[in-house]
Specification:
The protein is α/β, with parallel strands linked by helices. The chain has eight helices and 21 strands. Strands 1, 4, 5, 6, 7 and 10 form a six-stranded parallel sheet that branches. Strands 11, 13, 15, 18 and 19 form a five-stranded mixed sheet that branches. Helix 2 packs parallel to helix 4 and helix 6 crosses helix 7. The longest helix is centred in the middle third of the chain and has 23 residues.
Length: 447
């Protein structure tokens, strides 16, 4: 079993997979152009629990995800104030439209469109540095920001904020708040030591009670969810719906296409190793328009399943460049007459999360477009790794009970998979502070 540390290191490697382009595949003709009337819920993340199809196109976007701002940045999921300032200044200089999450979500719910070069900014977990070091920079540039919180990270402590402090932040119209579970656990397991009613109560607390708690304490509706560790499956989707969230965010490391569905909106983790070059690559990444994901995003599949498919509806794609992988592996084929790409796994899949990635070169722009989604193979045995608060001594966050190999090693490109809050800011844990992995580190294409 992989340790949590090895998983976090893997996530770090995955997060850097923005720039490389793969070799061209065998020749074929171009796929058909998309039909705006059948846009549906495809974003490289179609909902496993289908939502009503909607006409129109929201517009493409990139959502950024930060975790820590510290000087110096000792942890991979930490950026310095100078780097953050430079990144925000670059967005303004280059004419990016930093939109409130409210507007972005409304567009993907079919209630408007996004401007060109749309970007949204999010900050996960609720570290004090978000208030003291990040928000002043966002406000300086007039950029809205959404903080994703979980109640176990709110309260007294050197690295935490109180509910009163969050209320003060909300007095600024540029600041909004979303939910991030109750204790930041892995929620894509089959229960492990928790069985039956006990496991149901655990899940209800993480998704439903956490939302109610934040709404009660802050006096504002909590409408959006950031999946803890960026992990999700069909069970998580049902809980998300029961709780009444209007949108949910991954950290799959991709831009959102005009066809994205609101329950699987992708984000890019911004990391220490990105530097300005990596930051720019992420912001300038291109989404790939997909429909008919089979299986859907977050689907539970048997280990014996070998073939996975999707329809590419992105115009101006070089058919020779189309590549599809599962966990960074598999035999990829593409039918230009139907626009359907397939990947065949070499053997039975292990019981964990697996990332499916599709990419293709845009013939007009000469750059790669990329999209991805996750499936879970039944049978992951370990219990959820609940983050528990250290008693008596402030560690700035909880400590993970188990970690295990939650999503195995198939994160391919996710990054919170959220940042795991079991270390103080600046405490180097060797990699990502928070996401569990999917499988295979794919360095595929420009995102």
């Amino acid at each position: 079993m992989k340790t949590l540390l090895s998983v976090l290191i893997m996530l770090t490697a995955v997060s850097g997979a923005v720039a490389q382009e793969p070799p061209a595949a065998s020749p074929a003709a171009s796929p058909a152009a998309p039909d705006p009337g059948t846009a549906g819920d495809a974003s490289g993340g179609q909902d496993a629990v289908p939502e009503a199809r909607r006409p129109g196109r929201a517009g493409a976007s990139v959502v950024l995800c930060y975790h820590h701002v510290e000087d110096p940045a000792k942890n991979e999921y930490t950026v310095t104030q100078a780097d953050l300032e430079a990144q925000m200044a670059w967005l303004k200089k280059e004419g990016y439209n930093v939109v409130p999450l409210e507007k972005l979500v409304a567009a993907y719910r079919g209630q408007g469109t996004l401007p060109e070069k749309a970007v949204a900014i999010t900050f996960d977990d609720g570290w004090r540095c978000a208030n003291e070091k990040a928000l002043p920079i966002f406000k300086k540039h007039g950029f809205p920001c959404t903080l994703f919180l979980y109640p176990d990270m709110v309260g007294p402590g050197k690295h935490k904020n109180s509910y009163d402090e969050y209320k003060a932040m909300l007095a600024d119209p540029l600041v909004t708040i979303g939910g991030h579970s109750y204790s930041h656990p892995y929620l894509t397991k089959d229960g492990g030591k928790l069985k039956g009613a006990d496991y149901t109560r655990f899940l209800q607390r993480e998704y439903v009670q956490s939302k109610l708690q934040l709404e009660k304490k802050l006096g504002v509706p909590i409408k959006w969810l950031a999946y803890p560790y960026g992990l999700y499956d069909e069970q998580v989707a049902r809980l998300r719906e029961e709780a009444g969230y209007e949108a949910a965010f991954t950290v799959n490391g991709a831009a959102n296409s005009a066809l994205a569905g609101p329950m699987f909106l992708d984000r890019y983790m911004i990391m220490k190793s990105d530097g300005m070059k990596g930051f720019v690559r992420k912001v300038q990444s291109l989404p790939l328009e997909l429909t008919e994901l089979d299986p859907g995003n977050g689907a539970l599949v048997p280990a014996s399943r070998r073939t996975f498919s999707v329809k590419i509806v992105q115009p101006d794609v070089d058919p020779r460049s189309v590549q599809m992988t599962i966990g960074g592996k598999g035999k990829s084929t593409f039918d230009p007459t139907t626009g359907v790409a397939r990947v065949e796994a070499a053997g039975n899949l292990s019981a964990k999360m697996h990332q499916i990635t599709v990419q293709a070169r845009d013939t007009k722009l000469g750059r790669f477009r990329r999209q991805c989604w996750f499936v879970r193979v039944r049978g992951a045995p370990a219990a959820p790794a609940v983050v528990r608060e250290k008693r008596g001594k402030d560690r700035g966050a909880g400590t993970a009970d188990s970690g295990g190999d939650e999503a195995g090693d198939d994160t391919s490109d996710r990054t919170d998979r959220g940042a795991r809050p079991d270390r103080r800011p600046g405490k180097d844990v060797g990699g990502a502070q928070g996401q569990a992995p999917a499988e295979g580190s794919e360095e595929d294409g420009e995102r």
